[in-house]
């Protein structure tokens, strides 16, 4: 069966791609469960984070800062600022999905990196809705199930740092983000954020480097805004310059 608009992607292909992303990322919830339990949170607190927050990067940032001895308020602020990006995703997805008003509050819970990436890759509204729904449902169920299994099994695993499970979530996030960095400005922002975050990690309290790294975006946009008028001025000068038609 094909999407309703002409030239659309087959529904089966959309479902296959969405399931692939949902299963691959959903399984990393196990790493979050183990990491969260290892940082001192109870099984109930860990599961509540996945059920209610449901945005992996923010969850890992929160428990990582707590595990590093960071202030809970600073840790929560870092997680919050990472989660703000989902609001911008929602602005774009609301246009593509065009869901009924009554459904939007429930769909908002699934507006995350992975569902956005799958939805934006689709050519038609039908395939956008299918991709978003299948990815969101698969990921939500698996992420919460594996979070529970990871939190319960944390004691049996032992030292989570030795297994390197705390890196699984961020690694998946970066793997999804990297192909979306298409412009020079986007790459510059990502590079500056990495430099700031990693460079300040040894000297600032846990959770604070994430907040500072977020400044890379407005700084890059400010620099780009300053360059735009100059570029426009040079182009105008070139166009107005007298030409020798001989």
Description:
By secondary structure, this protein is mostly helical. The mean pLDDT is 80.
Concise description?
With 246 residues, the chain is mostly helical.
How would you sum up the major sheet?
A: none
Roughly what fraction of the amino acids lie in strands? Answer: under 5%
- Class from secondary-structure proportions: mainly alpha
Number of helical regions: 15
Helix fraction by DSSP (H/I, runs of at least 4): over 70%
Return the string of H and E elements: HHHHHHHHHHHHHHH
Secondary-structure map:
Blueprint (H helix, E strand, L loop, with lengths): L10 H16 L2 H10 L4 H11 L2 H12 L4 H12 L1 H13 L6 H5 L4 H8 L4 H28 L1 H4 L2 H4 L4 H10 L6 H17 L7 H6 L2 H25 L6
Q: Any descriptors?
A:
246 residues, mainly alpha, 15 helices, globular, single chain
């Amino acid at each position: 069966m094909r999407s309703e608009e002409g030239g659309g992607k087959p529904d089966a292909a959309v479902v296959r791609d969405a399931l692939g992303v949902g299963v691959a990322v959903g399984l990393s919830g196990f790493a979050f469960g183990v990491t969260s339990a290892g940082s001192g949170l109870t099984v109930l607190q860990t599961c509540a984070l996945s059920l209610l927050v449901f945005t992996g990067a923010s969850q890992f940032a929160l428990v990582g800062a707590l595990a590093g001895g960071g202030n809970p308020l600073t840790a929560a602020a870092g997680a919050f600022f990472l989660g703000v990006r989902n609001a911008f995703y929602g602005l774009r997805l609301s246009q593509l999905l065009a869901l009924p008003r009554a459904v939007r509050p429930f769909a908002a819970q699934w507006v995350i990196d992975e569902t956005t990436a799958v939805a934006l890759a689709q050519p038609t509204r039908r395939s956008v809705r299918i991709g978003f729904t299948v990815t969101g449902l698969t990921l939500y169920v698996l992420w919460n199930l594996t979070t529970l299994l990871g939190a319960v099994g944390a004691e049996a695993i032992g030292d989570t740092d030795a297994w390197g499970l705390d890196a699984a979530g961020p690694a998946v996030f970066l793997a999804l983000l990297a192909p979306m960095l298409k412009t020079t400005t986007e790459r510059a922002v990502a590079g500056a954020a990495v430099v700031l975050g990693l460079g300040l990690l040894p000297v600032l309290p846990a959770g604070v480097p994430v907040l500072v790294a977020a400044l890379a975006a407005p700084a890059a946009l400010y620099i780009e805004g300053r360059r735009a008028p100059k570029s426009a001025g040079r182009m105008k000068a070139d166009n107005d310059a007298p030409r020798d038609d001989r």
